[in-house]
Amino acid sequence: MREWFAHPLTIIGAGYGAYMRLDDSEDQAAFRAGLKAWLAEQLPEATPSAPRAWSADELRAWSKALHAAGYAGLTWPAAHGGRGLSPSYQAIYAEESALAEAPDHAGVIGLGMVGPAIVHYGTDAQKAEHLPRILSGETIFCQGFSEPDAGSDLASVRTRARRVEGGYVVDGEKVWSSYAHLADHCLLLARTDPDAAKHRGLTCFLLDMRAPGVEVRPLRQLSGDTDFNQILLSGVEIPDHCVLGEPGQGWRVALTTLAHERGTFGITLTARLSVQLDRLVKTAKACGADPRVRAEIAELYVDLQGLRFTGYRALAAMERTGEPGPESSILKLRWSQANQRVSALALRLLGAGAAADGTDAFWGGYWQHQRLRSRANSIEGGTSEILRGIVAERVLGLPKSR
């Protein structure tokens, strides 16, 4: 099934006259071939069971290898250590690395979100300090946006940054911060003017996670994973030179960051879903599948193809306008539903064996873990409720609910 992902799009023309060509250009084909050969050399052949677990040290080593091979910062400007390629090349990388079951760059948040924001808004000193280290994986960033009472509604951020001589003192709480337990720095959004309108008076900071007053508490999920974290900030001093962009303009910085997050996000999710569906088919063959199960798998295949081409449409919009469109919200919403359906069906196929654990379980309990982990899919990266609101307002033109 993985051969479905063989051709990203090329955008031909400009403006509304542009169209998608769903095969590689000559340069893209050469890039894809080189990437596939490099991944084959670097990674062991994929197995039908659980993917390899990577330690923090192994992830950092992998990130250095990516950087050395020129696969980190593909779309970053060449002046800042990138290759200045179009998002189509990043899409090729996202597809092929997911299909090869390669791990993420250790600094995936810094590479895909924080780095581009620093390129756009950072001072020369901030660029010199952070960008090379983000590319190499030496510095890991997390993101401090969501809060207990302001999850996907960033305009309701309550973390306060009080002005003092030489900088700010920050108090507040962030939640659902991926990889904060490993991070060296955090892109932090805080309110610096409590009297300003909701979208104003916000400022972004490049917070040192080892500063006094910063406490990280891992949030354990049903699956036992602790990728998400709570960040508690108590009297944390942040100097002026750590402000990213202008004070009070944090909303703009945040939107730039989120736009880059959504860029090729759907392509990555869809390629990973294809790997999961491939495993589901192997599980069905091992356990036996009646006609009803075969029909369900076929429906998942159709959903996957719809997601795949929606991802290409989103990429086409970004190539044309420079900004991702509402298609990214549709992708995230439908992917989370499909991924949860895959793991639920796999457990049904296992029957009584779904109750087994550890070495006694099918594939060492892979599907049990995936089923529990998938519950977070409808929360992470934007809750399903928020995404439905975006689709209703921006795609269907329905009136705002609030």
TrEMBL record:
Under SUPFAM superfamilies, the record lists: Acyl-CoA dehydrogenase C-terminal domain-like, Acyl-CoA dehydrogenase NM domain-like
Q: Give GO cellular component annotations, separated by semicolons.
A: plasma membrane
Instruction: Determine if Oxidoreductase is one of this entry's keywords.
Output: yes
Which residues are in the Acyl-CoA dehydrogenase/oxidase C-terminal domain? 248-396
Cofactor(s) of this protein: FAD
Q: Which GO terms describe its molecular function?
A: flavin adenine dinucleotide binding; oxidoreductase activity, acting on the CH-CH group of donors
Tell me where on the tree of life, at the top rank, the source sits: Bacteria
Residue intervals of the Acyl-CoA oxidase/dehydrogenase middle domain: 142-224
> What UniProt keywords are attached to this protein's entry?
FAD, Flavoprotein, Oxidoreductase
Q: Which residues form the Acyl-CoA dehydrogenase/oxidase N-terminal domain?
A: 25-138
Q: Which family does it belong to?
A: Belongs to the acyl-CoA dehydrogenase family.
**Annotated protein name in UniProt:** Acyl-CoA dehydrogenase domain-containing protein
- Give the originating organism: Amycolatopsis keratiniphila
Question: Encoded by which gene?
Answer: acd
